[in-house]
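Summary for the steering committee. The consortium agreed at its last meeting that each partner would contribute one worked example illustrating the joint modelling workflow. Our contribution is presented below. We chose a case with several input lines so that the handling of multiple components could be demonstrated. No manual editing was applied between input and output; the record is shown as generated.
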Amino acid sequence: MKVNSPDGSIQLVTGVGPQRARLLSRLGITAIRDALLYLPFRYEDRSHLKAFHELLPGTVETVAGTVVACNAARRRGRGVSVLEVILHDGAGYLKIKWFNQSFLQKSIAMGKTMVVSGMVKKNTRDMPPLEMDNPEYEFLADDADSLIHTGRVVPVYRVTGGISQKQFRKLMFALVKEHASGMEDPLPQEIIARHELPGLAESIRELHFPGSAEDITELNSGRSRHHRRLAFDELFYFTLGLAVLKRRGFRESGIAFRPKGTLKSDFLKLLPFTLTEAQKQVMEQISTDMSEPHPMNRLVQGDVGCGKTVVAFAAMMDAVESGYQAALMAPTEILAEQHYLNMHRMIDKLGLAVELRTGGGGSRNNGHAGEGTADIVIGTHALIQEKITFRRLGLVVIDEQHKFGVMQRGLLRKKGLAPDVLVMTATPIPRSLALTLYGDLDCSVIQELPPGREPVITSWVDSGKKEEIYALLQQEIGQGRQAYVVYPAIEESETSELRSAVQGKEAFERKFPEYRIGLLHGRMKPGERELVMDRFKRGEIDLLVSTTVIEVGVDVPNATVMLVVHAERFGLSQLHQLRGRVGRGTDSARCLLIAYEPVGEDARRRLDVMVRTNDGFMIAEEDLGIRGPGEFFGTRQAGMPDLRNADLRRDAVILAAARQEAFDLISRDGELRKYPFLKHQLDVFWKGRADLFKTG
Ligand code: ADP
Ligand code: MG
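What follows is the complete predicted structure of the assembly.
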């Protein structure tokens, strides 16, 4: 590697020592390339700074001037200190006031030139006629400075403590000058041509220090052609990685299952209902996948309560009948335990061996199984973390995929004989995004809910409306139904004001001594938890007081009431999941979202959406809007590379184009033999996430 190539460490740059390198690494900048791709988050037009006498009160402006007066900071009433400075621009004067920033005094001196940016106000007390309060400011030291920090469209970066805007901008200026032209363009030329993309070096230069031809409004919206070029790159690397993973799956040889189908049909006969058309269709797709001699990689999407579990169980029957083991991985212990209980109730009748493996609880089985010999193993991520050996793992089902990612899938796959993988998620995702996130998977959707389901009626109630809440409980429990109450915390603590499950249970016991009330939370021993869940399922508990451990998957059709305490504290998809615990039978169900003041703006939006709709897709869209894609998908945890310059919503069109190109390219040249530099960049982009070109 050349010392001054963009791949070099940022520490090789003049003026960046170990300390500054540490600061920069907080921004995700370790190589020179990272810095070049670290874009300004906005731009300020300082290309024609107004003269002071042209300024209008009530507008936000950026101007430059020399300090001609500076009053020592004074204290004024209630401990507020005011620092006053007068700037001169050669013709007029402008007064600047800084409140409670007396530390500034040290750096402000007569004769220094400053750029200030802020709201222009009338100065009613004295002269000069105009002032700015608490403007953003920069000092200019010499002429060279003025070319970087003013007299042009100036980039504004998100910086971190210890490095000022101006220092950062100066560093970027030097880097762009020195290294931008050294940024070799990894994109294949024909792709660049097809999409009329600007060159990489040009885009980097223009995005950091735009020339006079660039439109500042476009730059500030993040939609300039140069922004689109960098977004394209990121989305291209992203989907190219997924294409590589997917191709690897096709080429690997896997198990061609050949079940007779008796076990599956015996299993289906045990169900108290008939399958919906949507369920049958998806089962058919899965059977086809499983019969092929390549590992299956299928995602099943379907809103909460649509009946994904039986679909998965049926696939497991086929695997077992073909002489393999099947594993089911759930995101929480509660859910794993519940799957285990369901499974084991039915499976006993079919004579199969089931084993439960969770982190804390060790293992349990239904008496037929020993280490590694069960037909079906159910567990949490402990399944991939512990040294569990499988005898003949053939099928892996991952429930509620949004909590797992590509990496975990890979790990589990390594434990077996290139097993088939079935991933199930209730997080409905707009299709274009699903393609991206799960781009290496095939997708099935269960669109239909089982017959007779009614939408859950949801209300947002103020925490003061206790009687309304109690009345609903009395009405439903009086008719033999059951209810959940969910709290954000297990126990009350001195550091938090939140209502908690333990105290909540006591309060309900005082209010309703005649009810059978149960408690469930994550700090209980798995055995105790299982007992409580089992009693709730059997109808021996009327009111289950719980934390969010019941968020996913828990299934008790007789429960018709869901109370969420401190609903303002929960995320949207979490609320939707919680609500999904009721309305699972044919009785109409109610969900009360109990909110405590103050309810912030985002919380209001979340509660509004919940009251307005039961549609998981709409809720997912809203959630994406409120939280942004990074957090929505939890991509960090899920082992996906970060998207820094692309925005999955804003750049949906670019995403589709980049994805098409990526998959086409991999189908032409799967090993990227003709594109060694692109291949190298792809590895850099996915570094630490997945070894794309190594088969595990
Ligand atoms: P999810 O898709 O959220 O995982 P589940 O698989 O837990 O949903 O199913 C929700 C409930 O619907 C369960 O009680 C299940 O037994 C029931 N169910 C599943 N399929 C059907 C069907 N075809 N008809 C009636 N009830 C069904
Ligand atoms: Mg489920």
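The longest helix spans residues 225-251. The pocket of magnesium ion (ligand 2) is lined by residues 308-309, 399, 553 (CB under 6 Å).
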